[in-house]
Batch of 2 targets.
Target 1
Amino acid sequence: MTALLRHVAPAERISSTSFSEASARTRVELLLDPGSFVEFIGPEKREISPHLRIFDLPEQFDDGIVVGHGRLDGSPVFIAAQEGRFMGGAFGEVHGAKLTGLLRAARQIRSTPVLVLFDTGGVRLQEANAGELAIAEIMRALMEARTAGVKVIGLIGGRSGCYGGGGLIAGCCSALAVSEPGRIAVSGPEVIETNRGVEEFDSRDRALVWRTMGGKHRRLLGAADVFTDDTMQDFREAALDLLGLVGTFGLDKLKAEQMRLGDRLRRFGACEDAVDIWTADGIAHAETVPELSADQFIALANRIGRTSRDAR
Amino acid sequence: MTLDNILASLFPDGHDVRNVNGVIFGSAMLRSGARTLVIGVADRTAVGVDEAIRLSGHVLDSLDQGSGPILILVDSDSQRMSKRDELLGLNEFLSHLAKVLIYADINGRPTIGLLYGHSAAGALLATGLATRVLVGLPGADPAVMDLPSMAKVTKLSIETLQEKAKSTPVFAPGLSNLARMGAVHVVWNNAAPLADQMEALLADMPAVHDRRDALGKERGGRLKAADIAERVRELALQTR
Amino acid sequence: MEDLSFQHRVRGRAGGSRQNALVGVVASGNLEVLVERTLPDAECRLEIKTAAVGFGEVWTAVIGDFVERYSPGGLRFSINDGGARPDTVSLRLAQAVRLIEEDGQ
C-alpha cells in the first residue's frame, strides 16, 4: 500500500490517505511541507525502552514516538507523533522523555509552535511508574511552554484514541482537533467495565463507546475545538486553522475554563447519556448525530458554536 | 497517620481545614506567620468531575485573594471510573486542576503535595504529581497500576511480577518505588513534628524547575529519561 | 524473545543514496525493518529480534530468497519482529530496500 502510494502525486496522496490508518511516520511526512521533516533521536539511534526486555517483549527503535522539526505552510513547527500500533501508543520512559525534551525546547524558543499527534492508550503498564511520571513531566513542560507563549495543538484521530494520561495531556493543549475515530477519555471502556461492572459500562457496545468518548461528542461538548474528516489533508488544514486562532495563555484562560466546566456540570450533570446532553443542547433528533457525515456534523457543530478556545 | 493527626502535627498554631465528602479545604498558619491554602482528597475518595472542579475552584479563589504556599494532601482512589464522569469530559476536569496547580506554582504560589495514603493513575497526575515538591509520609501506598490488573494484562502471575519487581522500581506499586523514580522528592519522618519538616522544606524550597527526571537518574530508578529529554532539547534548540 | 543473525555475500551494491530507512511497526503479526548503508558493497547483514521463538529455519529461507532477489549489498538490516508471517517479512524487506534506493537524504 505504502509502496504503491509513493508513485502518486503528493497532493493526491495527502487527500487520499486516512489519518487513522497511517503510521506515525506517514502522518508526520504528509502533515508537514514535503521534505521538511528532521527527526530528533531517530530509529537509527536505537534508543529503545530499557524495560520491555524484563517482560520478554519486543522493542521498537523509536519507542513508539517520532519527534522533530519541520515546516507547516512554510513556518517552522515542532512535531511529535505517537505510533498507536506499538504497545497501543502507550507512554514509557523513553517515549515520554522525547516529548518532554521537545516541549522544553519550545518553551525556550517561544515562537515555534508544537503539534502533538496523539494515539495512545495511556501509561505503558510494563513501565507504569516511569510512564506515569513521564506524563506528569510532559504536562508540566507543556504548561510552562504555553506560559512562555508557545501554541501547542493536539491532533486526535488514531485508532488507539487518546486515553488515560494522554487525555490529561490533551486537556493541557491550547486547542484540539479531533476526527470521528479519535476518542478522548481518562478511563477506557474496558477499564470502567472491569472496575464497575458491565451494568455501568458495556465495553462491547461500540455505539455507546463512540457517543460517550468519540470525536463528535467531544466537539459538541467543547472539549475539542475542531471536528475534522479522517484524511491527512483535513488534519493539516485543521492544524493551520487552529494555529491562526489560539491566543496567549494566562490566568484569564484558567478562570474562563473554571466557568466553562462548571457551566457544563450545571447544564448536563444529570444527563445519563450523550444523546440526553445533545438534546438538552437544543439539537433536534439528537439520536441521529452518530450517523451524520463529517460535513453534516461540522455544519451542526458550527451552529452550536461551542469551543473552548478562550477557556482552556 | 490519620488526617486529623497530620493536620495537628503540621499546624500546631491552628487551622480551619475541613474534610467535606472527601474533599479537603481550608487554610492554616505556618511557623513563619504566613498562611497556606490547604486542599486535598481524603478517605481514599475517587477524583471525579465534581471533586476536581471544587479543588480547582479553591485554588483559583486563593490566587485572587491569598498568598503563600499551597499544600495539597492526598489519600485518594484513582480517577472516578464511571460513565457519567467520562461523558462529562473527566480528562478536562483533571487537566484543569493540574493546570491551575502548575500555574500557581510558576506564579509565586509554591505547591507542595503530601501523599499520606493511597493514590493512583489520573488522580495522582491531577494532584500530587502536579506540584513542585511531592512529599511522602511513611505508610503511603500509591499504585500507578495495581499488580492484579497488571497480571491480567501481561498474562504473568502476581508471584512472577513480585519477583521481577525486586530488580526494578519501574512498574510495581509503592512509595519507595516512586521515590526512586524521582516522583516523590522526600519521605518525611512521622515520628517527628511535621511542622518542623514543613518549615525546613519551605526554607530550602527547590527552584521552579522540574528536576524529577534528574532525580530519578541520581537515584538509579530512571536511567534514560533525563538524558533523552536533554538530547532532544539540545537538538531542537539547534533548529533556531 | 529470540535473536537471530544472518550474514550474506552478495553480487553488488544496492542502488540509491539514502543512508537509512525504516518501514513497518512492531505489533502482533507485524515487524519493523531498519536498513542502513554501513557495510562494504559485497556484504549484507540481518539482525533479528523476534517474539516468535523457534522459527530459525523459516527465517533462513525467507532471507535467502530475499538476498538472492534484491542483492542488497552494503546494507545492514535490523529487525524487531512482533511475530509476523513470512509473507509479511518478505514484503517489509522489499519495502525497506525500495525506500533506501530512493534518492535524497
Target 2
Amino acid sequence: MDDFALGVLTNIGLFSFLALSAYLLLVAGEMSFGQQAFFGIGAYAGGMLTALYGWPLPLAALAAMALGGLAQLLVGLPTLRLRGLTFAMATLAAAEMFRILFELFHWRVERGGELAGPDGTQGFRGIRWIFEHGIEPADYLLLVYALLAAVLALLLWMERSRLGAALRGVGLDPELAASVGIDVRRVKLGVAAAAGALAALGGVLFAHHNTYVEPRNFDIMLGVHSLAYALIGGLGTALGPLLGVALDIGLLESTQYFHGYRMIVFGGLVAVLLVFRPRGLLDERMVTWIRQRFS
Amino acid sequence: MLADLVQNSLDGLAAGAAYALLALGFTLIFGVLRRANLSYGPAIMFGCYAAALTHQHFGAGLFMLALVTIAGAVLAGAYVERLCFAPHREGSAIAAMVASFALWMQFEELAALVLPGHLYAFPMLHEGAPLALGAFTFRIDALVLLAVAILVCASLWWMLYRSRFGLAVRAVIEQPTAASLAGINVPRVLVRVFALASAIGGVAGYLVVASNGQITPMLGMWATLKGLLAMMLGGLGSLPGAVLGGLALGLIEAHSQWYLGPQMRDLIAYLLLFVLLAARVPWMTSRSAS
C-alpha cells in the first residue's frame, strides 16, 4: 500500500472515534456540537505527555482519555438536563471556550536544546513519538484499527446488553425510561464520560499521526462533521458512524473524481439521503432486517 | 475613561444591530419550525457573493447590490427550505439540522469556486471621515446600520401584530395544529416566514459586508454563530429577546475587546452563554422544546 492510501485509511480510523462519541450521545438523545473539544484535549494532553515528558504512548493515551472523559463529565453535569438545541448550544459554547483556551495556551519546555510544546495560535509541533520509536505507518494503521476494533466490540456488546437497552430507552423517551426504573441522569453522565474518553482517544491518535496540531483543528466544523458522520452512517448500530466516516473521507476526499466539487456533491448527497433515511443508512429498521437475514 | 466607555458602547450598538437582525431571522425560523437552520449564515453569504460578482462584472451601484444580496439570500434560503426543512417538517429535528449543515458545506465550496481568493473588496457604504460630535465619532455606515435595523424591526412588528399574515404567523408559532384547524395554510406560512427571515438576513449581510468593505468565505460561519449566540442569549424563540440578545452581544463584545483583546472577547461571549444556559435562567429555557 502506498503512503497516501495508508494516510487515508488511518484518518478514517482516527475520525471514527470522534464519530462514535457523537453517536453515543445521539443514541442517548442528546445532540452535541462540541465533541471536537474533547478530541482536542486528547490531542494536546497526549502529545504533551509523550513529546515533553517522555511518557510512552499507551500510558499517555490512557491519561488523555481520563482527562477527556472528566472534561466532558464536567461540561455535562450542568448541561445534560437541557434538551435539544439548548444542549447543542451549551456544548458548542463549551467547545469554543476550549478552542480559545488552546489559543491562549503556551507551555514551552526545553527538549533536546530546543523549546517545544503548545505555542498558542502557532500550534504544537514535534509530536514524534511514533517516529522516534520506529513505528512504520503500516504498523500505526494496524494499531489504530486494533483499538477501533476493541472499542467497537465493546460497544456492540454493550448495545445487546441491558445497559444498551437502557441507553436507547433514555434516548427515545426519558420520562418512560425513568418510569421503568432507569436512572436517566446517571446513564447520561456515564455516556458523556464515555463519549469524552472516546473523542480524546481519537485526538491522541490524531496528534501522533499528524505530529502537529493547532487550535484551528478543533473548531465547530470538526464537531458538526462528526455529528453528520454518525447520522449519515446510521443510529441503529455502532458500525453506522464508521460507514459515515468512510463515505466522506474514503470515497470523496481521497478520490479525485470530484476535485473542487467534493463538498457540493457530498453536501447534496447527505441532504437527499436524510430525506429518505432521517436516521441514517444503518438505522434501527435496517439493522433489525439484516439481523433477521443472517441469524 | 468615560469617553472610551461611551464610544465603545456606540460601536457595540452598531455591531449589535447587525447581530439583532441575524438573531431575528434565526428566531423567526425557529419560532415556526422549531428547528435551527445552520445554513442561515451561508445562505446570506451566497447573497453577498452574488452581489460581489455583480459588482465585478457590471459595477452596479449600492442600491442594486443590496437588492442582489437580498434576492440571493432569499433564493439560497428557498433551496435550503425545500431540501432540509420541508421534508422533515413532521420528522427529526436533528436530521433537518444536519441536512442544513450539509448545504452549508455546499455554499462554502461554491463561494470558493466562484471567487477563489481569500478576500475580495466590496463597495463601501460610505467612504471618508466619520462624523465627529464633540469627543465622539460616529461612523456613517454604523448609523445607517442602526437606522435600517430600527426600520426592519418596526416593519416586522407591524407585519406580525397588525396584519392578517402576522396573525397567521403568530398562530402557527403558538399552536400549529389549532392554526391548521382554523383554516390557516400552515405550509404556506412556513415558506413565507422562511423567505422573510432570509430577506432580513440578506439586509444584515449586505450592511455588514458593505461596512467592512470586504468579503471572505468566513462570512457564513460568522453569521450563523453570531446569530445563534444572539438568539440564545435573548431567549430561544422570542423576537424582542432576539433584538435585545443581539444588542447585548454587540455591547459585551465591544467592551471586552477594548479592555481584554479579541480572544477574550469571544471567550467571554461563549462563557456568558454557557453559564446562562447551565444556570437555566428562566427566559432562556422557557420555550426550548426541540
